Amino acid sequence: MDQAVIQRVLNALELVYSVDTPAEQRRQAEEFCQQLRNDQSSSTYGVHLATKANGYPPTTRHFGLQLIEHSISNNRQQDIIAVRESLWNILWHQNMDEPLYIREKLVAIVVQLVIRLWPSAEWPDLSQQLMQMWGVSETHRETVLRIWRTLGEEMFVFDRDAMVTVRKHELTNGIVGALLPRPVIAQLYPGGYRLSTEAGGETGHGGSRKKKKATAIPVEPGNEGGWLYRWTQNAIELATAFNGSNEPLLLSLISTISTFMDWVPVKALRAMDTAGRLAQLLQTPSDQVRIQALGALEIISRRSSGTGDERDIILLQFAQDHAAAALYQLAQCYATTLDGESQWADASEALAAAKTISQVASNLVNLHWARKKTETNVLGEPQMFLELLLKLSQDPRFTVSTMALNSWAAIIKHDILSKTPAVAVQFSALTEYTTKTLFDVCRVTQQLASVSGEPSAAIIGINEDEIEQFETIGELRMFLTNDVRTRLLAIIRGMCALDPAGFVGWIMPSLAPVFSQHEAPTAVIEAALMIVDSILSTLDDFEQRVLADDDSAQLGQVERARQLCYQLGTQVVGYATADLTLVSRQLQTLPSFAFLLRPSLMDNEKAQELLLAVLRKCIGHLKFSAVAPGPLLRDLRQIARRATSALVGLALAIPDSLMRIYGDLSQMVAARLADPEVAITVKSYLSEFQLALVAGASCTVTQRKQLAMPVVQPIVATLGEFMQAFQTPQAFVEFLGLPALDNAYAAQMVVAEDVRRELNGARDRRNQLTHTLSTLHICLQRTLLGAGNLNLASVWADYVGHLAPAILLLVRCLHALWNPAHRQTMGWQSAQARDNLFGVLEMSQAERLMITGGEPLIDQQGSGDVLLVEIRAVHHALATIRDHAYRALGRLMALREMLDQTKLPGLAANFTGCVFADVAVLEPRHWRLLLTEVVRPTLENVGNWPGITAQKIEKEAVGTLAQFLPAWLPPLFDFCTSRLHDEWMAMSELNSGDERVDDAMVHEKMLRDWTRAWSHVLADLLGSLSLWIPEAARMLHDISHAARISSTHAVSSPGVSANCALGLFVLQSSEQILAHLLTAALRLLRFAKDTQSVDRVLAAISELAPAFVLLVLAPKHQPPTPAHASTATAYSSRIAAGSLAHNSSLVVADSLDHWLTAELVPALLGVLRDAYQIDSQDAALAVLADVIYFSAAFTLHVQPAWTPRNSSGANEMGDPGSVLRLKVLRAMGAEKNSVDFEQEEEEEQPLQKVAGQVLAEDDSRRRKALLRVALLPVLAVEKSRMFGNSESKLVERKKATGVSVPENWTNRSMGTSDSLVDCDERFDLAALIP
């Protein structure tokens, strides 16, 4: 050992830790320290520096431990063996004077050694050494516990050490043998501990076979009792003799036990009575001990219940084993929390304990006792458990009771438990308490709404410690509203469903008088309305289920409950109040009255009167007196919106009942539509109500058209009236009143009367257009799109020829407003007017100021406030008109008639000329809306019309799409890709330049929105392809088994809208649309610095790329039978040559081959090399792994019976699969033209060389391991090809490859849904990584 190096270390550390060291000297000192870490002899210096006997200060000793840690982390095997004894000697001789950071680092390094060496022949006696250390002193016992705790955290929590993944199976066996007593191991695992692995061999689609691999469990001599059992026994002994001084060791014991509670097999936990033994600690007179013991019990209670004999293990060891000792101790501990001041040193700790106990009880109910698949009550005597649950649910502390209330809701819903006598006897007390508590919660919530500052616990009636659990009053109100109140109402609904007539009869005497009390508190009325809503909606759902089951006895109960509810309904509707909160709640209750107003009941006079009263109540709130802008006006508008929502809800629930009184109803609605005091937005929603009623009513198409005409015709007429103004941008500018504004600015302070009249007229026109488009959008949304709401498609089809041209022209005019070329031709009189007006209209500037919290920069000099208000009104109107126009156009594209040349000739040209006019000057905000509201709905719906079958898609829909999409879809690909690329490049320059932070922030926000909208479009298109090109696992199965394939395969990707007709058109189009799509998707991966967008596109590509591999390989082989040839041809013919290249004679397989190897792989490598895309790199690796895997899978499973077309023999380099994999390797950076798979072991493996070129030196070991796993099938398959593929030579193949490659290890291989990233435990990385 070089003493000069030691001295340099001491000098360097002194410079590093000194506050007076100059920056340059500090940098040089840190560089020297880093060089020493990377030195091959770093561990030797580390041991010397870390040894306390050598007299170095703690900081130097800590650095010595860092050197050792770095050497071990780099897996220098010779260092690991050499330093173990030295490190153990350091550990053995530590004492309480040792600084905590030294002890923690020492334990962390020991755990690193354990992970690498134990259990194996290199370290067979770890438990014996730790038991020897345990008997030395309390300090050593704490060290032993820290070692086990850190090992458990590294294994099951943090996953920071890559070697944990590599040796997980071996370590798992070692921990099982160390923790559990030998008798328990012998009883539970007589054949060894069985680890689940994926089975080899062929598997069919839809899942893979699994096998259980039994592994012997090592038990060291002297450790027959098991560490876990000894820990619990030691904890009990310390708790029994608790004196305060032994509290730290007791807490450390419980913490270590808790580390393994989420992992130890549940059968072992029950065999050792772990829950019961931990529950004994709850009597310890220490707050922290009880809290930690409860935490360990809570971990056990939420363990998975398993299947078969293990299904009820967790529940039984709490509530039945040893006369329910654990449950008894929980109940005793909970009782102490009710008087926290005398039983607990800290009342807040008592609250925390009560919450944990409630959580344990909730877990036992929801996860075990009342789970859906339970068919019997496994608790023979559940009285103690039920009493604890009832006490918890009645706890005055809402944070405690809410979890128990949730448990009761689950019990009530359970078919078996709710009928158990011991359970049913508790319902009476539960229901009374629930109803009372609901009123209390509403009272507290109302009081909190009026509190300013810190709430007083005494005033609002909430535990003071509980209030401190919430940072703000708003959070407390949200908790009471969303959690407590929701669970109380769930219990009320459950009790009503159990006994409808009995429950309604019980609650009516206390509920009905509430609505006749004029002085009743607001909270009481609000709670009563909630209960009424819950009862009526529950009875409605219950009636539907009973009708489906044809249960006459239950129908009788429902009918008796209905008769009781008529009186209640009349009182609710007749209740009048000026409190807007109660009015809002009352209106929210009215849709549930559908239960009382079914068509079959409308012959009843009471039902008819009640229906008319409900309608009058709703319509009466649509009109309100004029008030000044402010909170009151906002609340009144909200009330009107609640009223229209109630009307729409009734129209959807009981349309035929409403049609019985349609004459009276239409008169009431017409009066409100004609009333000038009714807001325009309210009138739009009234039109929605009318069309929703027409759509749901039982009538003929002709009747629907007649009933819808009074709603639709005014919309058509208004747009027709304004058509002339949409013909040119100049005419639209005059329609908006911009020339009048210009004149007003030019006149300075004096505005002529005719100019004022023109301004007023323009304002009226804008408002009328806004109202018309709003009504159109709302009505289309309600009656055209959505499941089951296409009833009025035939109605809207009659008006397509009038609506579509007007909206297309309007969109063109809107886009022109943001084109500077159009502004310059307007002949402005006032430069001030032009600058001020378009300073507001320019969306980019307005959005910047909005995002940064500023106001539009408008010059307020010269023309006064009137013109300023007018300018802002124009800005608001244009934004609203644009949004509604986009949405209306997108929804109209759901109509088949939109592509009917007889009704809309030249739609493709008009769509392109209007929608994409002036788009080059649009800011990203416009593009986000355009893509989201127009392009995506169009691509989702065109060709995807109701009644279109697979046969009609090929015969009709594809031809129709060919006349519409090619005119604008390829240019859209080119423009968005090019513009987004330029914007992201400019974004990087903006971030590195001298631009303002606000500008960069706003520009990035707008750019991300556009990028995400574009990624949605690409994902939708790629998802549509997946309907015709299924996942590779399905295709591989079909090709290898000569399966008859269906026309389409359903795809269900979250957030992706797939269109079957669109998918076939893209695949069959001669316009290279598929090539444009694939190129656009990969280019987004290259330039977009947005994780959401990249992940979305990667997910869509991952569905297709592996299947493309099979489409490349299948045509290059000769199928063994005509049936195999038919299957392969059926898949290959899905893609037309013209969709990928100009030269249609080019084979599709060659084009896909080029895309995979020359475009996809480099794009994935770009993601892997981009530090910004670190969150997407695992997904990119998974795609790369799938591409390689399915090439290998084809070679192993299909090729043995198929002959390569380009080779007569077993020419390895001529094999198509081998050639494809070599191309992938070259694309990943391999320098040689060929890769030699027969290198000697001491030489650098080619795959390691590729991995080194792809991943940087500082990349995480986990991603390096993943990349090598992704590349491994190349090595394994190539080496195995020198042998046959028969099962008899399996051992020889494994010997040749040196690895065992599982069949199913990628995220989609062979029909599994597991991810390579998430399921490392399913295969042994130690055997896979070269």
Characteristic key phrases:
single chain, 1330 residues, mainly alpha, two-stranded antiparallel sheet, 4 strands, globular, disordered C terminus
Describe the structure.
With 1330 residues, the chain is an all-alpha fold. 67% of the residues lie in helices and 1% in strands. It has a two-stranded antiparallel ribbon with strand order 1-2. It has a two-stranded antiparallel ribbon with strand order 3-4. Helix 6 packs across helix 8 (138-158), helix 37 (701-722) runs parallel beside helix 42 and helix 58 (1177-1198) runs parallel beside helix 61. The longest helix is centred in the middle third of the chain and has 31 residues, at 753-783. The relative contact order is 0.03.
Strand content: under 5%
Q: What is the topology, as strand order, of the major beta sheet? A: 1-2
Shape: globular
Main beta sheet, described?
2 strands, antiparallel
Tally the helices: what do you get? 63
- What portion of residues is helical? 55-70%
Return the average pLDDT rounded to an integer.
81
What structural category arises from helix and sheet content? Answer: mainly alpha
Q: What value does the Rg take, in angstroms?
A: 37 Å
Oligomer: single chain
Distance between the termini: 34 Å
Number of strands: 4
Low-confidence stretches: 196-212, 856-864, 1048-1054, 1207-1213, 1230-1245, 1275-1330
